[in-house]
Structure of Fmu (Sun) domain protein:
Amino acid sequence: MTKTGGDPTRDAAFALLSAVLDRRAPLDAALAGLADIAPRDRAAAHRIAAAVLRRLGSLDAILEPHLRRAPPAPVRHILRIGAAQLALLGAPAHAAVSTAVGLAHARGLGKFAGLVNAVLRKVSADGAAALEALDSPRLDTPAWLWASWGAAARAIATTHQGEAPLDLTLKDGAAVPEGGERLPTGSVRLPAGTDVTQLYGYAAGTLWVQDAAAALPARLLGDVAGRRVLDLCAAPGGKTAQLAAAGAAVTALDRDARRLARLRENLDRLGLAAETVAADALDWRPAQRFDAILLDAPCSATGTIRRHPEILHLRRPRDIETCAALQDRLLDAAAAMLAPGGTLVYAVCSLQPEEGARRIEAACGRLGLRRAPLGAAELPGLAEAVTPAGDLATHPGMWAERGGMDGFFAARLQG
Ligand SMILES: C[S@@+](CC[C@H](N)C(=O)[O-])C[C@H]1O[C@@H](n2cnc3c(N)ncnc32)[C@H](O)[C@@H]1O
C-alpha cells in the first residue's frame, strides 16, 4: 500500500483492485501483501474487491451515464468500490458515499472528491434499477471467454454473478456440520461466507474444503484401498487427502516446496499420511511404475472464476495455449510412469476445451493410451456431466438451483 486512508476496509479494497487491474497480480497474492490489517477488515476488503471484479462490466455501465469524461484509473477504482457497495452489497448510501470521498482524499485524489460525491449520489438513487436492466452475465464476461463456452456460456456466466458456497469433503462417518446439505455426490455444502475454521470438524480433522466438482476426479480411479497411487501436481492436497482417506498408499508430488508444506500440514490436521516428493513431474521418475496415477494439471483455472474472479481480468487467450503445451508434456511424463494396463486420470479446473477433451484426444493418438469412459452411474445426480466420449465435464451452471459448482474436466485413460 502506498498511502493509507482513515477507513482500512475501503483502503485495502482499493489496494486489492489496483494490484489486480493495474499490476495484474492474483488476488491471493494481493491479499497476502496487505500489511497490518485486522482480519475483519481484510475479509471485508476481499468481499468488496471480489464483488467489483465479478461485476466490473456492469458497474462500469451504471457509472458511465454519470461521467462526462473518463476519470483516471484510481478514481475509477474508487467509483467502482462505491458503486459495488451501493448497488450490490446493500451498504447504506451515506456510508458508501462518504467513505468513497474519504478514500479519494486519503489517496491524494482530493480534487476528484466532488466528482466522486456527485456520481455516487446519482448511483445511490438509480444504480440498483439500472443494474437490473442490464444483461449482466454478458457484460461481466470477456467476449473471448463467452465465445469459448459455447451454448453453456449464459448458464456459466449467470452463476459467476454470485459468491460460491463452501463445499466440504468429509471423512467416512464424520457428522455433517449444522446447516450443511449433503449433495448427491457426497460432498457437503454450506452457505457462501461460512468460516470453515469455526466448524467443529475442522479442529477435529474430519473435513476439508473442496468444491463438489473438485471432489470427483480422484474418485474416477475406483477403489484405491491398499493400492499405490501417484498424485502428480498434488498441492495443496485436496485430492491427496481423498486418496489417503480411501486407503491408498499415496505418493504426492509437487514442484512447489511451499505448497507441498501446506499439503503436509493439511494431511497432519486430518490424521492422514502420504509420501511427499518435491520435484518437477517432467523430470522425476519412480523406481517402480504406478498402476494408478492422478494428474491434476496446472491450468488456466477458468472453472474457478466464482472463487477467483480476477481470472476474468488476468487471463488472455494465449495463456490457454501455454497451459495446453505444458499439459501435453505432463501427460507424456505421466504416461512414462504408468504401468502397462494401469489407470491414469487427467484433470483440470478449466472450462476451455483446449485444456480438456482436446488434450485427451491428442494424448491418445500420441501415447497409445485409450479412454476408459465413465458411466453415468459413477456420478449420482450428475449424469449431465458425462460427455458423449465418456469424460467428466462440469460447469458452474450445473446444479444451479443448489448454487452451482466449479468447472472441472477429467478423463480416465488406460495404459
Ligand atoms: C491444480 S493445482 C493442484 C491441486 C491439487 N491437486 C489439489 O487437489 O489440491 C496444480 C499444482 O501443480 C503444480 N505443478 C505445476 N507444474 C508442475 C510440474 N511441472 N511438476 C510438479 N508440479 C507442478 C503446482 O505447484 C500446483 O500445486
In short: The chain has two domains: 8-134, 212-414. DSSP finds 16 helices and twelve strands in the chain.
